[in-house]
Amino acid sequence: MGRTVTSITQTFLKERAAFARFRRALRNSDQRVLDDLFASAQKHLAASSYASHALPFETFLLSMLLEEHKEIMRLKREVAELRHALQK
Amino acid sequence: MPSKNELRGWLLDIYADPEQGVVLWMLDEDGTKRHRLHQPFPTSFYVHGENSDLRSLWRHLKSLSFPLRLSRVERQDLFVEGPLPVLRIEAETPSVQEILFSHLKKQYPGLTYYDADIPVDLRYAAQTGIFPLADFRVLASEDGEVQELETFDSPWLIDAPQVPLLVMALSPDCNPDHREPTALKVHLGGKHYRFPFREERGLLVKLGALLRRHDPDLLLTVWGDNWLIKKLHELMEKHHITLPLSREQGRGVERREERFYHSYGGVIYRGPQVRLFGRIHISTENTVMYHDYGLEGVFEMARVTSLRIQTAARVSPGTGISSMQILTALRQGVLVPWHKQQVEWSKSAYNLLQADRGGMVYQPTIGLHAQVAEIDFISMYPSIMEHFNISPETVGKNGTNSTFVPELEMTIDQDQRGLVPDTLQPLLEKRIKLKQALAGMNPKDTRYRPYKARSSAHKWLLVTCFGYLGYKNARFGRIEAHEAVTAYGREALLRAKEAAEDLGFRVLHMYVDGLWVQKEGASQINDFQPLLEEILDRTGLPTSLEGIYRWIAFLSSRPDPRVPVANRYFGLFQNGDWKVRGIEIRRDDTSRWVKNIQQEMLVLLADAEDAGRLTEQLPHIHALLQSKLVALRQHNVPLEELLISQKISRTLEEYKVPSPAARAAAQLADIGKHLIPGQRVRFLYTRGKPGVYAWDLPRQPDPGSVDTDRYAELLCRAAFTILQPLGVEEQTLRWWMFTNAGYGAAPGFLSGSCSQQTPLLGKLIIDSPYPEPTFL
Question: Which of chain B's residues have a Cβ under 8 Å away from the Cβ of A52?
Answer without folding.
Answer: 353-354, 357
